[in-house]
Every structure is written in structure tokens, then in C-alpha cells.
Specification:
The chain contains five helices and eight strands; from the N terminus they run βαβββαβββααβα. With 172 residues, the chain is an alpha+beta fold.
């Protein structure tokens, strides 16, 4: 199971997410299997910025984890992402979260993503497409998402239900 997380808090947030998905698939060596609903979330760290729209996607690809990370970064660059400050506003943010249960510890990539269990804005969208995934702490995404919804991270709100098949037709 290969999972990515996406977020945007600048411009037309929903359009930014749709565009990122389209460009991720554009080369033909990556196929999006499913996407989560869209969730609106408060920013983390630097809170003086607009709220985010977040989602997750389940993909299939022949790319290696590093190649997939490079594709994600290339899409971010193509869309005009500028990294001016940590946790700052962004047109698009694409994170590689999980890659077929591989463990990677390299300067540019850690898999599974080490912050999944601490981020409601990742766990709740992941719950839509991979509730059975077992996380580093031994709990499933569904268990952790349930804790987020009942705890202090309940500021993750459903913004829009998404049907990937319908969305894909609109993007063509």
C-alpha cells in the first residue's frame, strides 16, 4: 500500500489539490487508486495563516520510494511552492506517508512518515482510504483517527465528500 498526504492553504485550495493529483499521474507511471474526502484543518506550528484543506491518496506506481518523493517535490515546484519558513503557508504540500511497509531512513526520506500518529489532519483522511493500516505504534489508522476525533485534535472538519471517479472525469 502506497499512501501520500496532500495539503493546501493558499489560493483555490481544492483546485490546487486536484491539480497536484493530475500532475502526479501525468507521466503514466503512477496511478491513483482512491482519494479521501477533503478536510479543513487548522495550521500546525505557525498558526498565523489560512486554514488548510487536506486529503490522502492511495496510489500504485513502479517508482521507487526516492523516485516517488522526487515526483512529489517536482509537482510542488511546478505548482510554485516556495519554502520560506517552516510550517508556513503553501500552495501545495505532498508527503509520502507509506510505501508497501518499507522502512527507509535516509536524510531526504523517512518511511513510514514519522509524524503520522501525531497528526489528525493526516490520520482522518487516511481513515477514509486505509483504516486497516497498522502504524508504527501498533494501532490501526482507524483506532488513531477515532482518538483524534474524540480528543484535542477534533478541529479536523469534513469539508467536502469526494468521489475519485467523478473527480477524475472532471480533470480530463
Amino acid at each position: 500500500m502506497i499512501l501520500i498526504g496532500l495539503g493546501s492553504n493558499l489560493g483555490e485550495r481544492e483546485c490546487q489539490l486536484e491539480q497536484a493529483l493530475q500532475w502526479l499521474e501525468q507521466a503514466g507511471d503512477l496511478h491513483i487508486i482512491s482519494v479521501s474526502n477533503l478536510y479543513e484543518t487548522k495550521p500546525v506550528g505557525d498558526t498565523d495563516q489560512p486554514e488548510f484543506l487536506n486529503m490522502a491518496a492511495r496510489v500504485e506506481t513502479s517508482l521507487t520510494p526516492i523516485e516517488l518523493l522526487q515526483r512529489c517535490l517536482a509537482v510542488e515546484n511546478k505548482m510554485g511552492r516556495v519554502r520560506t519558513r517552516r510550517w508556513g503557508p503553501r500552495i501545495i504540500d505532498i508527503d509520502l506517508l507509506e510505501y508497501n511497509a518499507k522502512r527507509v531512513r535516509q536524510p531526504e526520506l523517512t518511511l513510514p512518515h514519522p509524524e503520522i500518529v501525531n497528526r489528525g489532519f493526516v490520520l482522518i483522511p487516511l481513515n477514509d482510504i486505509a483504516p486497516e493500516l497498522i502504524l508504527e505504534n501498533g494501532k490501526t489508522v482507524a483506532e488513531m483517527a477515532g482518538q483524534c476525533l474524540s480528543g484535542t485534535q477534533s478541529d479536523v472538519r469534513l469539508w467536502k465528500k469526494v468521489n475519485w471517479d467523478v473527480m477524475r472525469k472532471c480533470l480530463v
